Automatic annotation (TrEMBL):
This is AraC family transcriptional regulator. It comes from Roseburia porci. Coiled coil: none annotated. Residues 176-274 form the HTH araC/xylS-type domain. InterPro entries: AraC-bd, Homeodomain-like_sf, HTH-like, HTH_AraC, HTH_AraC-typ_CS, RmlC-like_jellyroll. PANTHER family: ARAC-FAMILY TRANSCRIPTIONAL REGULATOR, HTH-TYPE TRANSCRIPTIONAL REGULATOR EXSA.
Amino acid sequence: MNTPAYQHEVIVPNQGFPFKLFLFEGNNGKYLREKHWHRSIEIFAVQEGSLEFILNEKHYPLETGNFIIVNSNEVHAVRAPKPNRTIVLQIPVNLFSAYYTEEQFIWFSHGEKTYDSQVTSMMFELFGLYTERKIGYELQMMSLFYQLQYLLVTKYRKLEVHEELLKSNKQLKRLGVITSYLKEHYKEDITLEKLAGIFGYSPSYLSRMFMKYAKINYKDYLQSVRLEHALLDLQETEKEIGEIALEHGFPNSKALSNLFRKRYGILPNEFRKQIKKTKK
């Protein structure tokens, strides 16, 4: 059976640059992004406030001035209960291809370094230049970006990685193709059996892939995708909660409300009221 050619979370760079730079979407707080992964390298640098990362089941609390590197195909979740100002840089992994190991692989450490302040200052300066956009800012940004790449490759790159990490990375690439398809069809009644059949796996094998490598079961992953879309509609539209639920694959408003309260500790209508207050 031929596998559909879906690619997982393709980066669309900022115009004129080989990377994507932006303000973290959870800057208003009360934010939770469930377990996910992608092909890009990501750097999160906290300029104000705090947030928490969960990478491969390990917790990394970040305060003002801290940053974290998220590797390609590294499973992570993000929690930002309070307002923050965090700069995010996404770098296509192929920009590091000249520095791959023999296994065509690259991995950066998360550990504390004595030169951490260099990374955060570069990130903040990059975003400042991009925001102000004075004459010649493109040249300044590319110069800073190359310095940052140099620091990553020379100070953070791990030259020895264990076999299990290589295997996990390979499996998450395969799962990435499947989850990209799922993200396009999440509104449908797409069962594990149906998805497995599309990609030529047995349901039990695909279920084990999700649990072993993504650390989440299939049903929870699908519900997380649906919930993220519902969350956006709650923030940006005036649609009824029941309408939002049905549009995004939930059987009814009660199912959406129960999951929403479980994940965010608040009901959808209460969340919407809070959003309206902050906009006044």
